[in-house]
Request: fold
Amino acid sequence: ELLFGYHLSLEEHCPEKAAATMVDLVAIRQRGRCAYQPIAAHLPKISDKDMELWKFCDEIKQVDDKWYSGDDAIKAGDPKTFEMLARSARRLDKDGNPVGRSFLGAFKADVDNLGLIFSTGMHNRLSLSRFASLSRMLNHFFSEELVRWIETDWPNLYVIFAGGDDLFLLGPWSDLVTFAAEFNQRFRAWVAERPDITISAGISVHHPGVPVHAIAAAAEDALEESKGHSADKGEESSGQSKNAVTMFGVTCSWSEFSTLKEQGDKILGWLDEQIIPRALASRLLNYSAMLREFEAGKIEKGICLSHMRYDFARNVNEKKLPDDTVRAEVLGLQLNRPLLRNIRLPVSYALYRTRYDH
Reply:
């Protein structure tokens, strides 16, 4: 006998007479006869495609019948080192050569205001079963659904931990940029688009030789910046704090992050097509910093606006502009104040993706 008139009975077969008043407890997926507690884990492994690319780039050497990365013998199916994960951040240029910085990314995220959700989110309907159901469904998303998705679509992401209401991943920094936006969309769908159940994240970028504890601390600092974010009026969660992501020192809402990522891809294309030079893209970082100071009250910093206009007129290669739409986007960049304030994220993304490792 349990509480409130309920009884528990363990039966190998369901008695037909009692079927209408019984609940059949089954595993979410077949695990045998025992209960289980999922432990989220995914370890990226070397693929045949990785081996072929490293051979082409002369990054691994063959001795007898074995291939070596440095002093270590490797083969397809072996776990990837952090350096190998960082290499996977590169893309291939038009000649098939890898381009982009071989950096490792760290992604840390957790659910916002979880204590408030549990304490007041159910109003006067709080019960042990509802409390347990909410806890289990959040844990199931992080420890089961998320890991299965990573195994299928993001095999280069290393799951350090995932469960409860948070996660910590390592992987190619460029993969994590795209993963982050899709991750938030999946979480929003999981909570049925409830406006008060949100998540915040931090992304940090590192050389693969940096100690893991330093990487984790940087990702945690970025997450804390996101937790301090306050939405501006007119955003999807007007007036609500948190619900944000931080990368390259820029903290923004998830919708802004997706927009900045798209802008970064555009700038990357303009760099590849030599419509704008890398030096001009780099100077946009300084113009952005000066614009922020100008808007904060330092009137003398307003000179950045005229300098930027002259810089664009002198250095944008209008002969390579394919059409009027691209021309308007490129030249309009200097007039887009909201974008210029956060230009560090898309410009850094584009520059990191165009630099060659030396």
Q: What stands out?
A: The first strand starts at residue 61 and ends at 63. Confidence is low (pLDDT under 50) at residues 233-239. Residues 128-153 form the longest helix (26 residues). The two ends are 71 Å apart (CA to CA).
